[in-house]
Amino acid sequence: MVRLASGGQPEGRSVLALLRAVVALVVTLTILTFALYSGYLSYTDLSPEEVRVPTAELEVDRAGRRVAYGRSSLTRESRLWFLHLEGPPEEIGDAHGRLAARLWGELDRDVARLLRHRYPEGLERWTADMVMRWDFRESDQSLAPGVRRELAALAAAMPEAGGERLSSYHRMFLDQSFVELTRRLDDVLLEGTMFAAAARPKGGGERGNLVIGRSFFADLGLDVEPDRLVTIVHPDGKYPFASVGWAGLMGVVTGINARGIFVALDPTRTDDALEEGVPLPLILRQILEDADTLEQALEILQAAPARTSGAVLVGDGRQRRAAVVELARDRDDRKPRGEDQALVWATNHMLRESFERDAQNDRIRRFTSSGYRYDRLGELLNEAPVDPARAVAILRDRKGLGGEELGLGNRNAIDNLHLTHAVVVDATAMVMWVGEGPSALGRFRAIDLRHALGRRQDRPAPLDDFPADRLLHGEEYSDYKEALEALEHARGLLARGLPEQALASASVALALAPDVGELHRLLGDVERELGDLAAARRHYERYLELVPGRLRDQERVRGLLEELRE
C-alpha cells in the first residue's frame, strides 16, 4: 500500500506540471495573439499629419438657423442646409467638422443601423473589417498634400468619428472612399441618373443652354431621408465651386464651379481588381477646383489614378457641351462619349466596347434598375427639347418604358420616391435648382451661382423656383406613406413571432401601396410561416421584379423559391 501511494505522487506531479505547461502555453499564445493583433491594427492604421488651425468662435444667430465659424457658416433654409466654407485646406476642414458634425452623426447612425441589419456582428463582419484595413493601408498617401491637410483638420474637429478600432482620421478617409466600400457589398446601395442636353434650334445656329439633370439614390432604408446639404466652397487659390451631397463628404458627387464646369458621378461595378489610387469623389473635386474648360476636365479624368470604376458626366456651360467618361483602372480607353452630341446620359453601367464582356457590368445592366432607367431616359430625352422645367419633370418621372404605370416606390422608376438628392443646372446661365425633398417631389429651389460663387456683395438675382409635384400633397402619396408605416408595424410583429397579426397589418399596406417591393418580401416570409406556400411564391417573385438592386437579398429570395418548389 505504501508503495502504491508513493508511486502515485510523481504521477500527480506530472499532471500538475502538464496543466501548468498548458496554462503557460495558452497565456503565451494569448499574449502573442494580442501583440500580433495590436501590431496589425497599428500597421494598417492611417495617421494624419499635424495641422495647425487658427481658432474661431461659433456664433449662432437669434433665430438659430445660422451658425458662423470664422469665415465659414452653416445655414438652414426650409428643408435645405447650406454649408459655406472658405480659406486654405486646414481652415476648410476645421470649419466643415465643427459646423456639420451633428448632421454627419445623424447620417452615420443611419448607415450603422443599416449595416447591423444586413451584416450582423460576428466572424464575417470582423473578417471583412480586417481585410478592409489591409486593402486601405497607406491609402491616404495617394492624396495631394492639401487634401491630406484638410482631411486631418476635418478629423480633428470631429473626434466623435473615431471608435470601433478606427481613428477619426482613418474613419473620415473611408467616408471619402464610400464608392469602393459599397462595391464590396453584394447589394447595390448607390445608384445615379444623369443627363445633359444642349439642342440646336430647328433653324440651325448656336446650341441652346446646357441643361443638366441629376439624381442620386443611397439605399439606406425606406424610413431614412438624409439631410440635403449644398456646400459652397471658396478655396484659396482655386476656383470656387458648389456641390450637393452630405455632411463629411470632402469630395464631389454632384457639383459645378465658377467657370461653368459641371461634374456628376454614378458608381459602377466591373471585373477589374481594386487598385491603389484616389477616391473618385476627390478626383471630381480636383476638376472643379482646377478645370477651366471641358478639355481640361477630360484631361484630369483621363490621367486620374482612380481607385475604382465609375461613370462621370462632365459639362461645360460656356461651350454648351457635355460628355460621359467611363473609368476603370485596368482599361486604358477612356475616350469620352457624347462629346459632340446634343444629348448624353448615363446610369450605373458602362457602354464602351471594352466592357461588353465584363460580367459585373453586365449584371448591373441586366439585374438592377440601371438598364431600365437608361432606356427610359432615352425615351424621355427624345420626346421634347430639354429646358430646366423639362429636366425637373424627367427627374420626377415615375413611369416605365412606353409610359407604363409602375406604381409608387417602384425601384425601376427614375423617381423611386427615395432619392437622396435631385438637381437641375443651367450651366450656361449659371443657375442651379436643388430639390428640397422628399425625393424629387418637393420644391426645386433656385440658386444664383454667379452670386454664390463670386466675390460680389450685391444680392442674388431674383429667380423662380419650381413648385412641388402635385403628388406630394395628394391622397395617393399619403396612402403610400401610411403603407410604409404599416409595413414597419408588420415587420415588428413577425419578429415577435406573431405571423397572423403581421399578415393583417401587411394586408393593409398592400391595399394602400401594392408596388412596394419590401412589402412583398415580408408577405412572402409571413405566408411561408403560415404555410401558404403558393402565396409565398407569388410575393417572392413580385419582390424580385420590384427591388432589382439588392443582389444579396435577391439571392436569398431565389434560394427560398427553390426550397418552396421542392
TrEMBL record:
<keyword id="KW-0472">Membrane</keyword>
<keyword id="KW-0808">Transferase</keyword>
<protein>
    <submittedName>
        <fullName>C45 family autoproteolytic acyltransferase/hydrolase</fullName>
    </submittedName>
</protein>
<keyword id="KW-0012">Acyltransferase</keyword>
<keyword id="KW-1133">Transmembrane helix</keyword>
<dbReference type="GO" id="GO:0016746">
    <property type="term" value="F:acyltransferase activity"/>
</dbReference>
<keyword id="KW-0802">TPR repeat</keyword>
<feature type="domain" description="Peptidase C45 hydrolase">
    <location>
        <begin position="232"/>
        <end position="400"/>
    </location>
</feature>
<feature type="repeat" description="TPR">
    <location>
        <begin position="517"/>
        <end position="550"/>
    </location>
</feature>
<dbReference type="InterPro" id="IPR019734">
    <property type="entry name" value="TPR_rpt"/>
</dbReference>
<dbReference type="InterPro" id="IPR005079">
    <property type="entry name" value="Peptidase_C45_hydrolase"/>
</dbReference>
<keyword id="KW-0812">Transmembrane</keyword>
<dbReference type="InterPro" id="IPR047794">
    <property type="entry name" value="C45_proenzyme-like"/>
</dbReference>
<dbReference type="Pfam" id="PF03417">
    <property type="entry name" value="AAT"/>
</dbReference>
<feature type="transmembrane region" description="Helical">
    <location>
        <begin position="21"/>
        <end position="43"/>
    </location>
</feature>
<dbReference type="InterPro" id="IPR011990">
    <property type="entry name" value="TPR-like_helical_dom_sf"/>
</dbReference>
<dbReference type="InterPro" id="IPR047803">
    <property type="entry name" value="DCD1A/B-like"/>
</dbReference>
